[in-house]
Design a protein that fits this description.
This protein is an all-alpha fold. It is 64% helix and 0% strand.
């Protein structure tokens, strides 16, 4: 059963950077794009652990959700240095709200991207999501947040590899991912993005 999404809203007051529209991001010159990306990455990568920093990260992740639904923006973001930082946040963030929103951003990027570079570490993201689902298998709320991202990544890998003669090594999918996915489906997990 798919649960309807709640609209995403970000708080401009907690974000310490401009929030450009997807159209503006698409039309940016490389220098401006790199500056924007650098600000996003440094805000996400911040190690501050106070409430304000957490709110700021969550707001940034909500903002990324709103622009990640545009194919060109999603393609630029997934093929940038942002994707490894998202994986790192998924692995290390102490706050599960942040991890859930990171998973949502990853899922949206995978769903909407039209290009996937050979060096994008999607296999690492698949392995990490699989581990997190396995470790938290009894927590249905977390599974509901993590499973859509895993499914979108698996579909992205399958659709991209279908168009190529040889699968890329960085896109290897561990069998555990399919096992976890099938186990969740057998148990009838209700899916939604957090």
């Amino acid at each position: 059963q798919i649960i309807k999404q709640v609209p995403v809203r970000y708080d401009l007051k907690t974000l310490h950077m401009p929030t450009y529209s997807a159209e503006k991001l698409i039309s940016m010159e490389d220098v401006d794009w790199n500056d924007f990306l650098q600000r996003v990455c440094s805000l996400l990568d911040s190690t501050e652990k106070n409430t304000g920093a957490t709110r700021s990260k969550l707001s940034l992740l909500y903002y990324l959700c709103t622009v990640a639904v545009h194919k060109e923006v999603a393609s630029r973001l997934i093929n940038s240095q942002l994707f490894p930082i998202l994986i790192q946040q998924l692995r290390a963030a102490a706050n599960w709200d942040i991890r859930a929103k990171v998973a949502r951003v990853i899922g949206l990027l995978a769903l909407h991207t039209s290009e996937l570079g050979e060096n994008v570490p999607v296999s690492e993201a698949v392995m990490l999501l699989t581990e997190l689902i396995r470790e938290n298998f009894r927590n249905s709320k977390l599974k509901q947040c993590l499973l859509p991202a895993l499914g979108e990544l698996l579909y992205l890998i399958a659709s991209k590899e279908e168009r190529r003669e040889h699968p890329r090594e960085c896109w290897v999918v561990p069998s555990a991912a399919y096992t976890v996915l099938m186990r969740c489906l057998r148990e009838g997990v209700r899916l939604f993005h957090c």
